[in-house]
Structure formats: C-alpha cells, structure tokens
C-alpha cells in the first residue's frame, strides 16, 4: 500500500503543499465515537507554525469533515478530513522546479515520477501533508482516551539540548497535552528555542529527538511476526518526513547492557502484573506486556535552508548551486511531536480493532 | 498480516522451536532464477550456532525445498523451504511452562494466546524461526546479486567493543560474505568474542549493533507515504527477535547536526549523479537516491540467561524466582547478521518487483 | 481492507448520500497521464439520472479534483475527486430512520453500526457513492485506452427483454461509449424503457444483466491463486450495490457443456495466438490469454419501491409496514453500466501495474 | 496478494501436482481450538478420486501437521499442513511440455512464467493444490461448528441433471456432511453418475453447479465497500480451478423479478428477526442479515479430455493437434464441493475474526 496504512482502522492521505486541498480519509473507526471538532482544532493548533522558530507561512488549517460523522458521532464509515490550502506563494519556488534541493526528495522523486510530480513547496512530500494525519489522529486519540489509553510526546533533545525523560507517565502525558513547545522540564525550553533562533539567523536548521509514552495500553496486543508492535509503529513513524531513526525502550542504548541488566523482571504488585524496569518499552516478542509503551524518534534538521548549497540541475544533469528562498522552518521538532502522537494513536487503534474487534473502541 | 510480509514478493513463515518443522513460503519471486542449494546451505551455515559463543544446541538445518523450483530454477510460484527440527530437548523446559522468562514473550504471549501457545524453547517466538528467513533470503540475495545489487552486514559493536564503519562498500560487502563472525576490522574480533565468553561464563549475555550496506540499488524506488523504504525495511527488521532500534544513515546521530551539515549535496561525477556525503543512508523522502543504502539495527542482549531472576508464576500470578536451564546463546549478534541481510534482501526484492514489475528480477 | 481496494493502483471511496460530499482517492496511477476533465464529466453524465426512468433527484455531479493532477497530468501521487451533494431532501426520509427497508442494508447496517450509521438516503450504502468510482474510473479508462485497451458494457437484459450479445468487439465497444441507454441492438431499447416505465407507474422496479467486454488486454496477467483475474474483478464487481451474480465467459451456461465443447482451442492466425472460441472469457487458470475478457453481472431490481411492504421497526423490533416515499430509481441498470466499466478499468490498471511495474501505464 | 488470502485469518498455499509436496499455512486462527486429525482425514476423503468417475490417480493424501498445533489444540500461530505427492507418473506428460492444452492455463502461464513453470500435471495450477485448502478448511469448519455455524454444499446440477435446492437447511447440511457424491435428492444421483461415465467412455468430460448454504452466521458481518461478504467469498471461490460463475441468493435469476418480488421483507417471529423470503442469500448491502447464506458456483467441464484437440506448439508457435494421455477426471464437481465448503469456511472465519476479534472463534 502506498498512501493507505492500516488494516482494520486504515488511513489514506492525499494532497500537495500548493495544491487545492490536502486531507485524509480515516476508515474503520468504530461507530458512535463522539467527534469533537474543537479538539481537532486544538490538535491542529499544536502542529501550526508559530513565532520566529517556524516558517512564516501561516495556514488557517481549518478542518472540514466531508463524511463519516453524523449527529456529532462517528458512523463507522470513512471520515474524510479536508484542509484547503490558502497561503501558497508558488512564485517563490520557480528555481526549485529544476534544481534538486539537498536532503529533500526532489532527485529521487524525479527518478520515480519522471518530472511529473508537483514540485511546488515539496508537493506531496511536504511536511504539510501531516496535517491530515493530525486531524485523523485527533479522533483516534479521543477514542483511545475514552478507553483509558493516553499518549504523549516531548522533545527529548533539540540541537543538542536535552529534556529530562518521562517520570510519572500519566501526569507527564497530561502536562504535554496543551504545550505548544513540548518539554517536560520547562527550564530547557529557552535554551532549545535559542538554538533554533540562532540556526534561523544563520540561514540554517536544527533537528532533535522525540520521546513518546503510551499509558494504559493492554497486554497481549501485537504479533510475533511480522506485525510486531514495533514493526507497525515504526512503519508509520518512518513515513513521517525527516524521521531517520526509531527505537523502543532503551533502544540502541540496550545494546551495551548485559542480559541481566536489560531483562525486565515481572512482579505481582497488588494483584497487577508489572515489570520492575521497562528497558523493553512495554513490548516483548512484538506483543504489549501491559507496561507503558516507550519509543524515541530521530528527526533530522529541516533540509530547507537559506545557505547556498551545491547540487545538480535536474534538466541538464550539470552541477550548479542553489540558494533556497521561500519560507522555511528552522526546526520542525516542536511541530512534529503532535504528528507522532497522532500517527501512533492511529496505529494503536488499528491494532486494538484487529485484536478485539471493530466494536471495541466505542 | 501476521506471518506474511510483502506484497509482490511475499514471505510466510511458520514453525515452533521444538515442533516438527519450521520453514517459510516465498511467493512472487520472478521465474527463471537459478536456485543454488549450496548457497542456501552456506547462508544457513552463517546463522548456525558455533563454538562456545553460541548455544550448544546443534541443528543440521538442512533445507528441503518442497515446491516452486523446477529443474534448478524458480518457477514463479511459491517456494517452500522446510527445516526439520532435530536436536530438541524439551524436557529441559518443564518449569518454563508456567514461569515467565524476563525479557521474553512468555507473559504477553500468555495474554494473547491464553496459554495455548507452544512454550517449548520459545515456540513460535524463538530466534530459530529466522532460519526460514535465511533460507528464503538466500534466493533473494542471489536474485539481487545477478542484478548488481549486493548487501552486507557487520557487527558494528558488541558488548561495547566497536568495529569500524563501512569504507569502500563493494569490497567490504564482498569481505563479509563468508565471515562466520562478521567484522570489518579483524583486530576487534577477539575482544568481542572475549566479552561474549565472559558473559557466558557468568551466566549472562550481551547485545550489539549491526550495520548494513546495500550497494547498487537503483534510484527512484520507495514511496513518500506510507511505504517509505525506511518504513518497509524497519517493519521487517523490527520483527526479528531482539531488535529494539533501527536507524538509517546517521540516524539518531543526525539529530545533533545542522541542516547544512546533514544535507547530502548532489554532484554529477563523470555523468553519474551521486551525493558528496551519505548522512541520509541513500534514502530521501522515502525513496532511494541511488547512493548505498545504510542502516543500523540494535540487538538487545539475549534474554535467556542462567542467572536467577525474579518473575511471576503464570498459573497463580504469584511472585517467584526462575533459573533458566537448557541451552542458550550468550550472544546472537553474530548469528543475527545473516538474518538482517536476508530480511532486507526480501524487502528490497518486493520493492523492486512493485516498481518495475514481476519479471524484473530474472 | 474496507473502503480501499487495489494494491499497486488503489481506490479509496468515501461519503454518504446526504452528507457534505462524496468522493474517491485514486492512488498509484502512473505519472504523466493526461487528465481530461471533459471526459470525466462525460462519464459522470453516463451515470446520471435522466428522464422518467430514473430518480427525479438531479445532481450536478461536478467533480472537483483536490490533488494529484499538476499541469493537466497525473503526478503519480493520490488523485482526490470530490463531488459535493446538493439536491438532498432529507426530510423525506424521516420514517426510514427506524423502519428497515426490505432489500436494503438498513437492518444489517444496524447490527453492524449499532444505529450510528447515517441512514439518510441510504448513507454510505447508497448507489450514489459509485459516483466516486466513475470519476476515478475515467482516469483509468483513459490510461488503458492510450495503451490500446478498451472496455464497454451493455444492458444484456432488462426486465426480461434481451439485447444481442457482443459481436465485433472493438466496434461494439466504440458504439457503447456515448450511449445514455447502452444496448447493442437499438431495436430493443424501447421495449426495455417501456418495462421500466411500467414498473415506475406501478410503484415497482426492475433489474437486469450487464455484459462487459475488454479488448486488447495482454496475455499473462493475473495469478493462479488467489488473485485470479476472475477473483479480483468479481471482488470489485460484487461491491457495486445490487450486484448478485458475476460470471466469466459462458459462466453458468458452461456447466451444461461437454469438455470438448467448452475448451477454447489455440490457433496461430497470421502469427498471433488466438482461440477459436471464447467460452472462458479470455481467462484460463486465472490468467489472461490474450482474447477479449468477457463477463456478465446480475443487477437486482432497485429495492426502493413505492409499494407498501412488511418490515420491522428497528427501535422496537415489532412488525410494521412501510411505504417508502422520497425519490427512487425504477431501474438502475442503465446507470450501473458505466460503474461496471469504471470499476473494471480500475482493477485492470492495478493488475497491469503489478505485472509490469508502476510506469507501464504512462 | 498471490498465494495468500485473508487478513485476520489468512491462508497461504503452495505446491505443484508432481512436486515433492503440496500444502498450506493457516495463520491467525484463534488459540485453543481442538484439531481433530480424523476430521481432517474425513474431509480429505471427500475430495479424493473414487471409482470410475474420477481420475485413476490415487493419492493417500495423508496430511502431516508441521506446526501450530500443540497438545491437540491450535496455538494461535501458523498451522502448516503438508501432503506429500506420491502417485506421480510424470512420464505421461512429455508432450504437454510444449503443447498448450485447450481450456487449461498452459498458454497464459507460459506468457507469465516464460516457460519456467512446472508443467507436469498442471503444476501449481492443478486442482490437486486444493487439497491444502481442504486440510486448512477442516480446522475452519470445526471452529465454526463449535460456534453453531454449519456449512454444506451439494451438486445442484451435473451434466444437465438437476438436484432439488435446499429445503430445511440445518438438516440438509447435516445430510451432506458424509456424502461422497453430495446430492440432496438421492434419486438423481444415478442419472448424474451415468452422465459422467458416458462422458468418460467418450473421452470427454462434464461440468455442473454447486449450491452452498451456511446456517447460523450472525447478522452484521461484512462491509459495504469493498469487502462485501459477496466480494470476499467470490474472491476465494473464483480462485478454485474451473469456477466460472458465482451468484448469491437468486443471483442471475433475480434480474427478471420485480422489486416487490425480490425484496425480502423483515419479520419478527418469536422475537427473532427473519426475512420471509431469502432472494438475497442472507446478504444485503454486503453485510449478513442473519438469514442463511446461499450461493451457487459454476464449475466448467474438466478441460483435460482424451479427445484430440487443435492447439499450438508453445515452442514454435505453429498449429498442431494434441491428444492428452495420462489420467483425468471426467468430472470434478463431486470432488469440488468439499473444496467450496472449505474455502468458504476460511473466508467466514476471517470475517468473524475481523468483526469480533481474534479470540472470538475459540
């Protein structure tokens, strides 16, 4: 599948950065789930560009629901979210029609689409396409929350500045839910923003790491092969633009431990099975073990920078240089976190519907 | 999908560690590809347990092809690989029927399969099931090689000891093809093995990182959403037991770079488009850019250790302790690398068949 | 998959009869294919209700393309077709909120969606949803035509009145392309329309059979299992509302023949392999043999009729009677034929892209 | 997907008529279901060639279970069924290596597999491959039966001789369960067998129609698009060799009715919702309505006949004649009926698991 992901709960996305509209079709979500348009708008707001640390492109990002909601509740049939593009300045992008931006998809896209792709503003490769994921994800997040499953993502590091890791997970998730710049330790926020603004001032960009926790997810969901929970989550996460790494639990860090350190021992605490540590991020053998799911996502620095770069001319194949004009994000890490929440929520809804049936989420 | 992965080229695996047989069905591989049973045996040999750094369980791992090969060539219809289990000592596993091994799937499997799973030797969760992937992968690797696409994986680190990274990729891949303990810098091998043996002596285990390179993969393969090359590779890689992290190019390391450092600039060198660096691991926008594919896989320490561990009794739910007897691997990193090669080759064959049609690989 | 069908070329549909908009997302169509909006409008026109033999509901059915087309050509990324609903008279449908219409999906939908479905005008079950298939199908039909593959469907029978079967297939297909009431023998048209009008006058409805031919489809496409050409075509065709039977070649009629009569013998005619008969409808062993594809589709009489019918009250479960008001089609067979053409074209594009790669259609 | 079908419950088949072994992998069946090897053998027996109305090829068809069953119950992981080929007389097939049998897949297979397919005995196209479906289907049938869902198929017509249609469905299904030649009206059996023997004597073959009923299937299962119950059942049924038509309820016969005749009116009978007729075969809007599922399958006459036929030489492309030697079935309709039962049961298990979750069937 290409622009469709999921099996029982499936998402299809569409659109180009400077086209008429972008959006998503969310299929298979259980009937009878309240759809809170304010919450959708709230989530869209978390993805928005704001202040000096984001692109000056300002989009209303008003989500119009075309289908699948009746009298304020899901019908069980496809929910279509449409977001009209408005603030498009395509004239800025003239030179980009034939010069491949380093770090971007222009050159491989040209090899795949033979020059017919809509190059304006990154076209279908644009981070803007994630708006559809956030709109659909809002419904998924609401549905999970009604079942006691919450999800939160924070900026674990940005441009080398680190946030603290998750502590008390339910309250940390709660804390993150409204944050425009999501860190757990508020004291690191200014240092991160300073780094982003410095990069912007220099015509450059920065990246970062996101850390996500899911609380209340039941044990016994996922498959040993090939749809491990890690597999299906990473499949989705790696389709978010700029993501170059995904790790669960202690991830790459676990490789230096001994087995006796890495193993999470089961304990019966007041009649509930828990593990005394969570190095495996709540997943063993591909299946949830009832502990919080924990994963981290590596987001590369935004490839669109003002600095002059070497590249080739796609028409002639000759070497040339390129100075990208237009409006860019010096960082997307703060905007990406709600995309990760949304994407993960959609995957988890699918897994739960596969495991417990299509009615379970209502 | 559960035990089936892929779309145009698809793999289905089956079997339990102590059952009658394990194996795999490889479907959709182009007709007319020579099937070299010696090469299959060679690849199976790379996965075998050897010496003191692996489990004492010794399996002939003879692969029997039941279908899909006629007169030494693929027919285009499903190829079935069967490997009979022989050296099973199920009596060793009695206590494991009801005590959940930490770090293993026992507890989540119990929540999913309600106690009906075959617990012996890890059952369907056993690393042994990867033998089917290696058998099928051998056909995929051969098919790719005939098209000029080679693949190699080495132990980038083991128990804290590091190998050098890839240098001249084609010759490095060549060098790795026969190595039973695959490192690029032979001088680090002894230190790694020493660490493994020390862990074994201590009833413990170690993990490591694998690094993989794919050479000769054409530009223009993969999707922007949701089947990015990273998505489909990570989906497969995370289903290999013990894998807890996957990163492409510089992965998590790229998050501390500036955009101007991380971007790979396109250059025309003697009429060929290349990038002057490869921080993105040959993939931008989810699509191959013609540079070598590069990724790393985090393998946790083997969870089966001799040391006594705390756990619960699955029948009573009560706290207890467990000392795992039986035969274990103090490390699997050296055996896992051919699994990664095989798994990746299968995914790439699928992508190529989707992009260029079902005849392309022959 | 639910509202998504296809693998390399995939269609997702959405919408409800009386919702904001209906539409479809067509993914995976090759880049660079001209999109002729006039041809789309032409095809939409063939599906429209006209005259006294259709519902008085009149929809402009203007197709708005939201994505995937750039400078008049496909980009290779998802094409979104949106059709706004306009002439909705929901007040007509009050009683239908709780009385299950016989022959319709109301009762099973209630068992599936627990009453949350949008019941107005049939909601997501409405034949109106096929408008999205027709819009997307227009692009598929154009793409096939550019490769020399044409497709045509006629009303083989309606209310017991029969048309002649296909004769010279290319010219018959050509003849059908603009027909609002598609029969091959114009002389039977009036008798069919008379029957439809008689049913309408009586508050009743009629059904019919459609016959489809595909010309120029290459040999060697399809799978022995489980994606036979018959399987993938019937999967799509049976999702068109009111379809209750699908047969290929002589279909049910072949069951009374002897093998020596039913077998299509291969002949070399001027260097081209053909069969001297086509009882198998161009498909043997699930794979195309180069002869025209031939199939027939059974369309039941429209279930919405004015006549009073017995049914139950969905709220109380009690027996009651129902007289459906609102606007109905006394027949849909003449409108369904372009849906069958479109649906089949989409399936065939998918099969061709799987077989020959994603670039083949351009 | 090719040789894999289904989503939550999936079947993968493999093998060639004269290869080492054929078989199937059944994935996703709920854990804890008793696997009755005697019942599997019983079902295999119903598919066997017997007496003078079948091929003289006699296969033990002993099913060996390689995985997925532990202590007599399903584990929830893939169940692998292997059937070794024994009575293969490949020398009979020499001429068939290069002459395309009319009505068979030889020519289209050659266009797809470029001559690398295993032509012996039909290879992967052979009806013999359905043995794997019957073995897997036996587990599905058992699982359904434990939930009160039964299924039965009879020979509605053979060579023009007709059986009566279903009457009291539960007892008719019961009656069919052990019948080697499954008719409801025993008095038509001899006439059918006479026709088959006459065809055999004449070196010819006959076809027929099968009729299937499913009793006890719950309402509310299936999708409006594109996975209607009709779609998923027909997808499977059309992959059974020789099937050329599928119809539900009154199928093609419904097209001549008026809406007022074809509509099945809902009635509350003793607190249970039923319909007073079942022209729609238990499915409206793609979803089950709680009435028995009813469908018919058209099976063409066996294409392998002794009579000389015209064809081409696949190597030279020249016209030639062919007289097929070897062992053939003058009819397969009596053997196909258990294949239809099995195939349908597998599809229904998948639908139930998708609807109610992976635990529902246990």
How would you describe this structure to a colleague?
The structure is a homotetramer of 362-residue chains. Chain A has helices at 37-47, 106-113, 130-146, 169-176, 189-201, 229-237, 259-262, 333-356, and strands at residues 4-5, 10-14, 21-27, 63-67, 69-70, 73-74, 79-84, 150-158, 161-162, 208-215, 243-248, 266-269, 272-275, 283-284, 287-288, 293-299, 309-312, 319-322. The first copy, chain A, has 362 residues and is an alpha+beta fold. Chain A has a single domain (4-356), classed as 4-Layer Sandwich (Chorismate synthase, AroC fold). In chain A, the strands form 6 sheets. A 5-stranded antiparallel β-sheet of chain A has the order 1-2-3-7-4, covered by helices on one side. Chains C and D meet through strand 1, helix 2, helix 6, strand 11 and helix 7 of C and strand 1, helix 2, helix 6, strand 11 and helix 7 of D.
What order do the helices and strands come in, and which of them pair?
4 copies of one chain form a homotetramer.
Chain A lengths: L3 E2 L4 E5 L6 E7 L9 H11 L15 E5 L1 E2 L2 E2 L4 E6 L21 H8 L16 H17 L3 E9 L2 E2 L6 H8 L12 H13 L6 E8 L13 H9 L5 E6 L10 H4 L3 E4 L2 E4 L7 E2 L2 E2 L4 E7 L9 E4 L6 E4 L10 H24 L6
Helix pairs in contact in A: 1-3, 1-8, 3-8, 6-8
């Amino acid at each position: 599948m290409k622009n469709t992901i999921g099996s029982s709960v499936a998402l299809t996305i569409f659109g180009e950065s400077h086209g008429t509209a972008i959006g998503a079709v969310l299929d298979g979500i259980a009937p009878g789930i309240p759809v809170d348009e304010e919450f959708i708008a709230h989530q869209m707001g978390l993805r928005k560009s704001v202040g000096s640390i984001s692109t000056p492109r300002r989009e209303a990002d008003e989500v119009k629901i075309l289908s699948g909601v009746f009298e304020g509740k899901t019908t069980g049939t496809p929910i279509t979210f449409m977001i009209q593009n408005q603030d498009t300045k395509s004239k800025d992008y003239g030179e980009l029609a034939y010069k491949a931006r380093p770090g971007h998809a222009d050159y491989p896209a040209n090899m795949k689409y033979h020059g017919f792709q809509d190059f304006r503003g990154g076209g279908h490769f644009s981070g803007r396409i994630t708006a559809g994921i956030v709109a659909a994800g809002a419904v998924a997040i609401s549905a999970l929350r009604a079942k006691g499953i919450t999800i939160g993502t924070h900026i674990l590091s940005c441009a080398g500045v680190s946030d603290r890791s998750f502590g008390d997970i339910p309250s940390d998730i709660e804390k993150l839910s409204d944050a425009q710049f999501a860190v757990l330790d508020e004291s690191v926020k200014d240092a991160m923003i300073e780094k982003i603004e410095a990069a912007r001032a220099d015509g450059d960009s920065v990246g970062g790491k996101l850390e996500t926790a899911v609380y209340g997810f039941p044990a016994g969901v996922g498959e040993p092969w090939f749809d491990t929970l890690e597999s299906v989550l990473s499949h989705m996460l790696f389709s978010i633009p700029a993501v170059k790494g995904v790790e669960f639990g202690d991830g790459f860090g676990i490789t230096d431990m001994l087995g006796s350190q890495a193993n999470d021992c089961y304990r019966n605490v007041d009649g509930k099975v828990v593990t005394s540590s969570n190095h495996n991020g709540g997943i063993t053998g591909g299946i949830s073990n009832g502990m919080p799911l924990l994963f981290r996502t590596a987001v590369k620095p935004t490839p669109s920078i003002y600095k002059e770069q070497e590249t080739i001319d796609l028409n002639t194949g000759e070497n040339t240089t390129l100075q990208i004009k237009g409006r860019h994000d010096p960082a997307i890490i703060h905007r990406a976190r709600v995309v990760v929440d949304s994407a993960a929520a959609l995957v988890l809804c699918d897994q739960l519907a596969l495991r417990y049936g299509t009615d379970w989420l209502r």
